[in-house]
Design a protein that fits this description.
The complex is a heterodimer of chains A (about 600) and B (about 350). With about 600 residues, chain A is of the alpha/beta class. In chain A, β11 and β12 form a beta hairpin. Chain A starts with 6 loop residues before the first strand and ends with a helix. Chain B is an all-alpha fold and about 350 residues long. Chain B folds into two domains: about 280 residues, MetI-like (MetI-like fold, Orthogonal Bundle); about 70 residues, no CATH class. Chain B is built from 15 helices and two strands. Chain B has a two-stranded antiparallel sheet. In chain B, α2 crosses α15, α4 packs antiparallel against α8 and α9 runs antiparallel to α10. In chain B, about 35% of the residues are buried. The chains are: A alpha/beta (about 600), B mainly alpha (about 350). At the A-B interface, α15, β18 and α16 of A face α12 and α13 of B.
């Protein structure tokens, strides 16, 4: 006898109206969710994974969206067997929060800032379970204990801004679990969190699932996370499920080229690859929308081997050169940046946030230094201070024997061409009112590089080609480009002044893994060809390991450990570094087995 | 890009087309008012024909007011007056307000510095100019206009020269030579708060009592209260944008401040500023009518829509004295708002 699945989705189709007619965001997908099971939906942005979950909750805004077909049969406790897609709004309201609930990506914005955390959870309970105020409060307290919030009594009365991001996500989970739903939809619940916090949240979700028998539909872009939590995986690509199966099967024996590409293009912690593979190495999308697998040549062909060899030689030569030059390009000396937070009656500052608290380091020409740390550790402030976008409180930044920290505004402006920055958010780092060409040309104009407009135009075209765009993109506006392309434009702009050093502030964090691989490859290519020095700021240790010659680990405004990636990963000296490394979901087969055993043990 | 989008708006929206045509016709009417007013001067009194009701086949085809002045001619010239007041005020307010607002937001309270000596000399100079230029301005009343003007310019030059010399001298003193940060943002905010705390009409009424009536003075007066809107908006927009990576990238590329403000901040703040301009313009057209209705600011011989409305007070049967100017005002304001909307949409960036 087969058990009926808790949630059975058949041929779900959701469309969005746009200027060019209807776009199918979710195209005819079917899957089952069994009781007590965790199913992960993996895909990159635009794959339709979030739309799927919102469709199930009937939370798609109409217009522009519309669910145009399919069924989603839920075995409901209240109503028996119901089709979620056809349920009237009144009944749906009764289901939402009580039988199906949802956790969102951004814990900062999914709690209402004007109510206390306790009130928001109590509201759900009072609404669905007809509890009195007292009972609801007691239940909320119990829930807060279950999600392991520290000092639950205090948390009841705390406002969202008073607690950390991880704690907020715990409150969200408490709220979602309040009425013991049978289905929990978690939409990228750990994406905005630090790795160590992420590990705790994943553990918590696993535990809750085991204890309450809740089924979880877990949506994520990170295959590493999937390995930790899911029983089954569905891989989505452009609105279709291209592959689904057991976690172990997907990781050890992926069938679809897209899945293979996703697994390959993330920088690995253990193995070293000179160039990261990208999705286009694995497959080709025909104009008809069909996906064709490309035979992936793993550098076995002669040109592949030769290229690989040349790359390795260039790499060795560069490293040698780096060691020879004893004179550092940048030398930072006891740098401090303090922000005032409290002033007394007379305007005298009483309390500071020590964002950067006495940092010393040297960067040698031609090397890539990775600066890793969790949010709030001061890494971004440090990067911005090197450019003097933030004024240092004290300390010296010596570049070419000049102390940048002491330069006057005008001298600083002139010296700016030596340092450039590539920012995190590709959507906000380009001026929407300027064309791509103007954006790249502007710094050259200001610093009087090259003689006239015509030469600069040629240089811009050259730069566009260097970063993998074409001269035809010159007159286009930023909104016509995708995130990865915009990041390429930002890189071209940074290159326009031929800087000695580029600071990459989380430059690939907002990109999909496949696009991330392309951008990382581009940065490495530029390093080899132009000898640029990078300060690579990131929260992602695997990216840092892949990119860097040396890694600095930062915590609470100080650099607590530094060394080559091998040193840091193989013999971490500091406890904090050890925790950080242990928390990364690696997505190894061994790890998956371990995670599954752990779940069975619960 | 902006023109292409405006073109698209023109093709798509009939309201935009209608408003544009209406404003164009109005502009032509105002420019050629002397030819279109059927031979009547707006101040031509015809006491034999007071309160003529409008009728199409007569000389005064839109009727006359209490003194027999032609309504059609007054509409044309009144509209001219309204625009002559509203457009320069709003343009100047936009330029001054945007400049001040952006500068205040960018430089904040700490980035700009000044010498104490400069502040002292500037203060003394301002006091002297105010004292001799406005407070004791009667010393030149016996001279004819040209000579008085020359004398004023002369005085200004002398005072400025004295101030400059004073600044040089004061700079030698150690206390006054010290550079201190200029709290530009604070200054601007407080000024705006003070000006905004007094109701606009009362401020204008009280200042109007001091100045002689005339379009120039009214423009100056209204400018005093109207620059606040654009300044606030520009300040807020600049503060918002200052945090964005593309502005930081511009800074990191070593762009000079004026270039960042003009090329990166201003175009992105254009959409709300255009909206503010249109709202301000509409408000000013109404305010000009209000002031003339009350008989303040503009000399009584200036033709105005407000003056015509005032005529209706004496004879409530004369509906045409209310209907025509009111209709003209309403339609014009509606048209300006429609055009403003289209501009805003064209300037706004697709996300």
């Amino acid at each position: 006898m087969s058990i009926k699945p808790l949630l059975s989705v058949r041929n779900l189709e959701t469309q969005f109206r746009s200027q060019h007619g209807f776009v199918k965001a979710v195209n005819n997908i079917s899957f089952d969710l069994m009781a007590g099971e965790t199913v992960a939906i993996v895909g990159e942005s635009g794959s339709g994974k979030s739309v799927t979950s919102l469709s199930l909750m009937q939370l798609i805004n109409d217009p522009p969206g519309k669910i145009t077909g399919g069924s989603a049969v839920l075995q409901s406790k209240k109503f028996g067997e119901v089709d979620l897609l056809k349920l009237p709004e009144k009944q749906m309201e009764k289901l939402r929060g009580s039988e199906i609930s949802m956790i969102f990506q951004e814990p900062m914005t999914s709690l209402n800032p004007v109510y206390t955390c306790g009130r928001q959870v109590m509201e759900v309970l009072q609404l669905h379970e007809n509890l009195s105020r007292k009972e609801a409060e007691a239940r909320t307290l119990a829930l807060f204990q279950q999600v392991k919030l520290p000092r639950p009594e205090k948390m009841l009365k705390a406002y969202p801004h008073e607690i950390s991001g991880g704690q907020k996500q715990r409150v969200m989970i408490a709220m979602a679990m309040a009425c013991e739903p049978s289905v929990l939809i978690a939409d990228e619940p750990t994406t905005a969190l630090d790795v160590t916090v992420q590990a705790h949240i994943l553990e918590l979700l696993n535990e809750l699932r085991e204890r309450k028998g809740t089924s979880i539909l877990f949506i994520t872009h990170d295959l590493g996370v999937v390995a930790e939590i899911a029983d089954r995986v569905m891989v989505m690509y452009k609105g279709n499920i291209v592959e689904q199966g057991n976690v172990l099967d997907i990781f050890t024996n992926p069938q679809h080229p897209y899945t293979k590409a996703l697994l390959a293009c993330r920088p690995k912690i253990i193995t070293f690859q000179p160039v990261l593979p990208t999705v286009s190495d694995f497959m080709e999308v025909l104009p008809t929308g069909e996906i064709v697998e490309k035979p992936f040549v793993k550098d076995d062909s002669l040109p592949g081997v030769v290229n690989n060899y040349i790359d390795t030689m260039a790499e060795l030569k560069r490293k040698q050169l780096m060691q020879q030059s004893t004179k550092p390009l940048v030398k930072v000396d006891d740098l401090r940046v303090h922000f005032p937070i409290k002033k007394n009656f007379f305007g005298k500052v009483k309390e500071y946030v020590r964002a950067v608290d006495g940092v010393d380091f040297e960067i040698f020409p031609g090397e890539t230094v990775g600066l890793v740390g969790e949010s709030g550790c001061g890494k971004t402030t440090l990067g911005r201070t090197l450019l003097r976008l933030v004024e240092p409180t004290s300390g010296r930044i010596i570049f070419n024997d000049i102390d940048i920290a002491g330069l006057s505004q005008e001298a600083l402006r002139k010296s700016r061409k030596n340092f450039q920055m590539v920012f995190q958010d590709p959507y906000a780092s380009l001026n929407p009112m300027l064309t791509v060409g103007e954006t790249i040309m502007e710094p050259m104009k200001v610093h009087n590089i090259l003689k006239n407009g015509k030469e600069r135009c040629e240089k811009v075209n050259e730069l566009l080609e260097t970063v993998g765009l074409t001269a035809a993109h010159f007159d286009r506006y930023p909104h016509e480009f995708s995130g990865g392309q915009r990041q390429r434009i930002s890189i071209a702009r940074a290159l326009a002044l031929s800087p000695k050093c580029i600071i990459c502030d989380e430059s690939v964090s907002a990109l999909d893994v496949s696009v991330q691989a392309q951008v990382l490859n581009l940065l490495n290519k530029l390093k080899r060809e132009m000898g640029i020095t990078y300060l690579f700021i990131t929260h992602d240790l695997s990216v840092a390991k892949y990119m860097s010659d040396r890694i600095f680990v930062m915590n609470q405004g100080r650099i607590i450990e530094s060394g080559t990636p091998e040193q840091i990963f193989n013999q971490p000296q500091n406890d904090y570094t050890r925790d950080l490394i242990a928390a990364i979901p690696k997505g190894d087969v061994a790890d998956i087995r371990k995670a599954q055993e752990r779940r069975k043990g619960l | 890009m902006i023109w292409q989008r405006l073109k698209r708006a023109r093709q798509q929206q009939w309201t935009f087309k209608l408003a544009a045509v209406y404003l164009l016709v109005l502009l032509v009417c105002m420019l050629f008012a002397p030819f279109l007013s059927a031979g009547f001067h707006p101040n031509f009194l015809d006491l034999s024909q007071t309160y003529q009701a409008p009728f199409f086949f007569q000389a005064h085809w839109l009727g006359t007011d209490q003194l027999g002045r032609d309504v059609w001619a007054n509409l044309l010239y009144g509209c001219r007056t309204a625009f002559l007041v509203a457009v320069p005020v709003m343009l100047l307010a936009l330029v001054a307000g945007t400049g001040l607002g952006m500068a205040a937001a960018w430089f904040g309270n700490k980035l700009l510095h000044f010498r104490r000596a400069a502040a002292v000399s500037l203060g003394l100079w301002l006091f002297a100019v105010w004292f001799y230029g406005f407070y004791r301005a009667d010393f030149s009343s016996e001279l004819d206009q040209n000579a008085a003007g020359l004398l004023r310019v002369g005085w200004l030059a002398v005072l400025s020269a004295v101030a400059i010399v004073l600044n040089r001298l004061l700079k030698t003193l150690p206390f006054l030579a010290k550079k201190v940060p200029l709290p530009l943002d604070e200054l601007l905010l407080k000024t705006m708060e003070v000006l905004a705390s007094v109701p606009r009409l009362i401020l204008v009424l009280s200042f109007a009592a001091l100045l002689s009536p005339g379009i120039g003075n009214v423009v100056l007066l209204l400018l005093l209260t109207y620059w606040i809107g654009p300044a606030r908006l520009a300040r807020a927009e600049t503060l918002k944008m200052k945090q964005l990576p593309y502005i930081e990238a511009a800074q990191a590329s070593g762009l000079p401040v004026w270039r960042i403000l003009s090329r990166h901040v201003l175009p992105n703040a254009a959409a709300p500023l255009v909206t503010a301009f249109c709202f301000g313009l509409s408000g000013l057209l109404g305010l000009e009518a209000t002031l003339s209705f009350l008989g303040i600011g503009l000399p009584p011989e200036t033709p105005s829509l407000g003056r015509m409305l005032a005529g209706a007070r004496l004879n409530t049967d004369a509906w045409w004295l209310v209907l025509f100017p009111a209709l003209l005002l309403c339609l014009t304001i509606l048209a300006i708002q429609t055009i403003g909307q289209a501009f805003r949409k064209a300037l706004e960036v697709e996300k």
